[in-house]
Structure formats: C-alpha cells, structure tokens
Design goal:
Blueprint (H helix, E strand, L loop, with lengths): L1 H34 L2 H28 L11 H11 L1 H8 L15 H14 L1 H28 L1 H12 L2 H6 L6 H16 L4 H19 L5 H19 L4 H27 L4 H12 L2 H7 L15 H14 L7 H22 L9 H4 L2 H16 L12 H15 L8 H21 L6 H24 L29 H17 L9 E4 L27 H10 L3 E6 L4 H8 L5 E11 L2 E10 L8
Parallel strand pairs: 1-2
Antiparallel strand pairs: 2-4, 3-4
Helix pairs in contact: 2-6, 2-7, 3-5, 3-22, 5-6, 5-12, 6-7, 6-9, 6-18, 7-18, 7-19, 9-10, 9-11, 9-16, 9-18, 10-12, 11-16, 15-16, 15-18, 15-20, 16-18, 19-21, 20-21
Length: 628
C-alpha cells in the first residue's frame, strides 16, 4: 500500500512539473508575441503575400524568362478537332451525332474535364486570349500543389526548383501548346499527385486527399489516356499506405469514390449547360467499343516494338527513376512517406504504360499525346530527387538556392543554340541515362566534402550534367531509320526542341483564322445537316483538322475523284465548305459540283496578320433538306 502511495505521489508530482513547464513555455511564447514589434509582424504578413504572388505569377515569369513557345502549329488533326468543340460545341453535336453514332467518333466532345474550362475561357476572353488563360490555369493547377509539397518537405528553395522543373519541361510546355487535352491531363495529374502526397495535420489530410480526387477525376474526363496513369498512381498510393499507414485507409478510399461520383455528376451538368450535351459517359463508351475492334487496334497500335529504340525521349522516365533511387538510398533513416508515394506512383505509371504498350493493345507510349502524361509524375519525381540530393545545402543561406538556379540556367543556355542531333537509345541514349545516374551519385557524394564552397561547386556542376542530359534526351529528334514492319508510330512528333525559345507569332495568326471558321459557317439549319470540307490543290492544310478534318474531308485534288463522289453519296452532306490560300480553285470546283446542285451561301476571306484563307460555303441541293 505504501509503495502504491509513493508511486501515485510521484506521478502527481511529475504531472505538476510537466504542467508547470507547459504553462511557462506558453507564458514565454505569449510574452515574445506581445513584445514582437508591429513592423516585424507586418513584414511577416507581407512575406506570405509576396510568396503567394510569386507562385501565382510564376507561369508568366517563366514564359518571359525562358521565352516559352505558347502555341504549337495547328496542322495536327486532333487538336483542331477539339477546337471545333470549344468554339461551336452545340453545332458539332447537331451536325454529326447521328452520322457518327456507329463509330463513336464524337468522343472529342466527351472530354468535359478539358472542354468545359476551355469553352468558358473562350466565351469570356475570345479565341487567343481564352487559349492563353486556359493554359495559365492549367499551369497553376500543376505548379501550386507542386510548390506547396516541395516547400513543406524541404523549404521554399525546393518549392521554387519544383516550379522551374515543371515550367521548363519541353514535353509539358508542348502539351499546353495546342487544343489537345493532353496538357490538361498533365496538369491535373501533377497537381493530384502532389495533393495525394501532401503532408499536414490529420484534420487537413483528407482535404488534400479530396483535392487529389477532384484533380484525378478531371484528368480522367479530360482524356482517356489518363485512366492508366491515374489507376497506376492510386495503386502505388495504396501500396505505400498498406505498408506504412493502414489507419483510416478504408475511409480514405470511400472518400475518393465519393469524390469521383460527385465530380462526375457536376461535370455532366456543366457539360449540358456549356457544351449542350450531358452524356459524355455514353460517348466515351461508344469510343472505347469502336477503338477496341481489331481493325482500329491494327490502325493505331504497333504490333512490332522495334520503333521504341529510336525514340530517345522515352529514356527520360527510367533515367529520372534511377536518379530517384540514388537519392533515397543515401538516407540512413526511413524514407518519408510523401517522398515514397511520389516515387512509387511514378514507377508504377511507367510499368503500367509499358505493359499496355508492349503486352497490350493501347498506344500508351508510341502516341506522344498519351506518353506525355507520364511527364507529370516524372517532373514531380525529378524535383523531389534534386531536393533529396541537395539536402546538405538546405541550411546554407545562398547555396540552398543553387538547384533552382541550375534548373533555370540550363534551359537558358540551351536556348543560345538549340541544336541537338538525332539519336536513339544506342549508344548515346544509354550513355546519357548513365550520365544522369552518375551525376546524381556525384551530388550525393558532395555531402562528404568538408569545405562548403567546394561542396556547393561540385554539387552545382553535377546538377548541370544531370539537368542537361535529361534535356538533351527530351528534345533529341528521331534518327532516320528504315521502314519497320507492323509499326504504326511515325516520325511526326511535336518539335520539343522549339518549346524553349520558339516563336508563336504565326501560330497565333493561324489559330485566329481557324477559330473564325465555325463563325463563318454558322449553325446547322436542321438536325443532321452534315458539313464536308474540300481544299482543292491541297491548300490550307494547316486548317485541315477543324470539323473532324480527315474524317470529313474530300481528297485534296482540283477534281472530284470516284472516291469523293461515293463519299458524298454516302454522307449526303447538306453543306460543303471549300477553302484555300487563293481564289483560283473555286470556279473549277463549282463546275465539278454541278451534279450536286450547289448554291453559294456566303464567301469571304478570313485573315489575321499575314495569314489569309479564302472560304466558300455551298448548299448542296441534291442532299439538303428544308430548314426545320
């Protein structure tokens, strides 16, 4: 009994000491707060606002400093197909829904995760300004969560480095350059991965998880290529949670499922109001069924993987993961869970997409619009890798900004002479991958150098090698090679080499003319009034993608071919749009169309800057019905 009393007394005394210590600490903190001068508190608040403003303005600053190409050429069919849904979505559904019901080719209109914000910006700001506002929003969706994640893990300099990694990536910048939803997918996935890994107090973790869920659902409904990326990310996340933190996992999964249902429902309402068609799920399912047929798989997917060794930029992904492995194995203690989530998710993305490409039937790697989505995880992983490698510099006032400075300096140096010779995987590609990994190991080894200046210099030079090797791998053109049997992938890739320091002036003018075409054509006068396009003499090719381009065009010849006549009889279009770079072909085209009883509705010249496009809209009396 005495022992129990003594033990209880000791516990009470210990409790009183702890309570007194806490109270003393609170009093000290209160006194420090009371004597904190007003200007210091103001400077603290101003610092927060300046930091936030810097993050918000970072896309603009990057565009000015790095001279980013802000718009790609418009002569790729897929982006211009989406442009038509941005400019005239209701007319697109009115004209072509019935005609394409059997093939699912209206799936471009079933991507509200991209089309809804793009359409709203077009209505609010116009064609080119709306294009730029949409891309600015996508950039913020990516860089703000990336900055916050890197800042919380490593501090503001690492956050700035993360912003620079994203905004200087030629693949990401190019994806934002056109009206293809690939840019939206990259932004949503990058932001979603950062939110998924975001550390914080328990009461905020589910808020970040919900934000990640929202961004992932937006990615899925922006383009189908996001499905394997998001699925792989969640698999990696669940694997880490099962190994590290199972508490509340079922509730978190239920939260993600609820977010998916809620966001999809809201997108259906938004799609109905903004685009004029609510059932994007049905459009997507039709497309999946059609594109899964053997004929379509043979058309779009290479059965022979021999094309891959010619595409050097695919080596960026394993190079980044190799550098990440070097960075985290240097730690004596356990790798932080947020770091592990990002790395495992990025690795899982690559494994899943490679499996679907080489063992499945999806063109997840050979189509650059699809493979570009992997750069969301790769960029975030690279930023974390550099932050992990340079942790010894974090407590040095100036040296901690070295990674951000190097990440900015390498693209600027590249812009002085952006010439990279074509090469594939062997031997130069593999050599550069090795250089990335060796450079990562060299940065890691700088922690053993006792002299601060020598350590910072060695780390900086190693980071230059690492960053430059990745940049060269990214922009390297595909080398000439013999035609490969059973391959679909072509050498038509966007010019990543011009993403940094490239000019956009002529592309803006082309886009202004492209977006003016739907206004010139006007709305359909009755449901199912199809529109076909004809550009005699193969002129005006940069505008070929509008109105489903290749699907809705006659052959680019001055005379109607037998195929053209059979196609006209099959499609029975009420209207035909003829366009070209001059007025020369119109009269000859009109004679060719005599059998179809053409009537000129309107003619004009669309122009912006040095770009001129002659256009004629005809009603074909043989097929047109009375308005109603």
């Amino acid at each position: 009994m005495n022992e129990r009393s003594a033990f209880a007394a000791a516990g009470v005394a210990k409790h009183r000491v702890m309570k007194a210590g806490i109270a003393a600490s609170a009093n000290v903190a209160a006194r420090e707060h009371d004597v904190l001068p007003g200007p210091a508190r103001a400077r603290s608040r101003w610092a927060v606002w300046v930091e936030a403003l810097g993050v918000v303005l970072s896309p603009l600053l990057a565009a000015l400093v790095l001279r980013l190409r802000l718009m790609a050429p418009t002569n790729l069919p897929d982006p211009a197909m989406h442009t038509a849904f941005i400019v005239a979505p209701r007319d697109m559904f009115t004209r072509f829904t019935a005609a394409y019901a059997s093939t699912g080719r209206m799936y471009e209109g079933g991507r509200p995760g991209f089309l809804v914000p793009a359409r709203l910006d077009y209505l609010a700001f116009g064609a080119v300004p709306g294009f730029l506002v949409t891309r600015y929003i996508f950039a913020l969706v990516a860089v703000v969560p990336v900055y916050l994640l890197l800042r919380r893990l490593y501090g503001p300099p690492a956050g700035v480095a993360g912003i620079v990694v994203v905004l200087s990536s030629p693949v990401i910048v190019t994806a934002w350059n056109s009206d293809h939803p690939a840019g939206a997918v990259i932004s949503y996935v990058a932001g979603g991965m950062a939110c998924l890994a975001m550390p914080g107090a328990p009461q905020w973790r589910r808020a970040w998880l919900a934000a990640a869920g929202i961004l992932f659902v937006m990615a899925v409904w922006a383009h189908g290529s996001a499905v394997p990326i998001v699925g792989a990310t969640l698999i990696g996340y669940l694997g880490v949670r099962l190994a590290r933190d199972r508490a509340g996992l079922l509730a978190d999964v239920a939260l993600l499922a609820g977010v998916a249902v809620a966001v999809t429902g809201l997108l259906m309402v938004a799609s109905a109001v903004v685009l004029g068609h609510a059932d994007f799920i049905g459009l997507t399912w039709q497309a999946v069924r059609y594109l899964s047929t053997p004929g379509q798989i043979k058309t779009w997917h290479s059965a022979n993987p021999a094309w891959a060794p010619y595409v050097a930029y695919l080596l960026v992904l394993p190079a980044v993961l190799g550098a990440f492995a070097v960075a985290i194995t240097r730690r004596q203690q356990q790798v932080p869970t947020p770091v592990l989530i990002v790395g495992i998710a990025a690795a899982t993305q690559l494994v899943v997409c490679a499996g679907l490409q080489f063992f499945g039937t999806l063109q997840t790697l050979e189509n650059y619009d699809f493979s570009g989505a992997l750069w969301a995880g790769a960029s975030l992983t690279l930023a974390i890798t550099i932050a992990e490698l340079t942790r010894p510099l974090a407590d040095r006032k100036l040296a901690r900004w070295l990674p951000a400075a190097v990440l900015l300096a390498v693209p600027l140096g590249y812009e002085v002479g952006p010439l990279v010779a074509p090469f594939g995987w062997l031997p130069f590609g593999v050599i550069l991958v090795g250089a990335v990994i060796v450079a990562a190991a060299a940065v890691r080894g700088c922690a053993r150098i006792q002299r601060p200046l020598a350590a910072a210099t060695t780390a900086g030079l190693s980071l230059v090698v690492l960053t430059a090797a990745l940049l060269v791998l990214t922009v390297a053109p595909i080398p000439l090679h013999p035609k490969l049997p059973h391959t679909i992938v072509g050498d038509k890739r966007p010019n990543y080499a011009l993403a940094l320091g490239g000019s956009s002036a002529i592309n803006f003018d082309n886009y202004r003319v492209l977006t003016a075409l739907p206004s010139f054509v006007g709305n359909a006068t009755y449901p199912g009034e199809q529109l076909l396009l004809w550009r005699p003499n193969d002129t005006g090719v940069i505008f070929a993608g509008i109105y489903h381009g290749d699907f809705n065009s006659l052959s680019s010849k001055p005379q109607l071919t037998p195929f053209d006549r059979s196609y006209l009889n099959l499609r029975r279009p009420g209207e035909l749009l003829i366009y070209g770079n001059s007025a020369t072909p119109f009269r000859a085209a009109l004679r060719e169309l005599h059998h179809y009883r053409p009537t000129l509705i309107r003619a004009g010249v669309l122009h912006a800057g040095p770009v001129y496009l002659h256009v004629w809209l005809l009603r074909l009396g043989l097929y047109a019905r009375a308005p109603g």
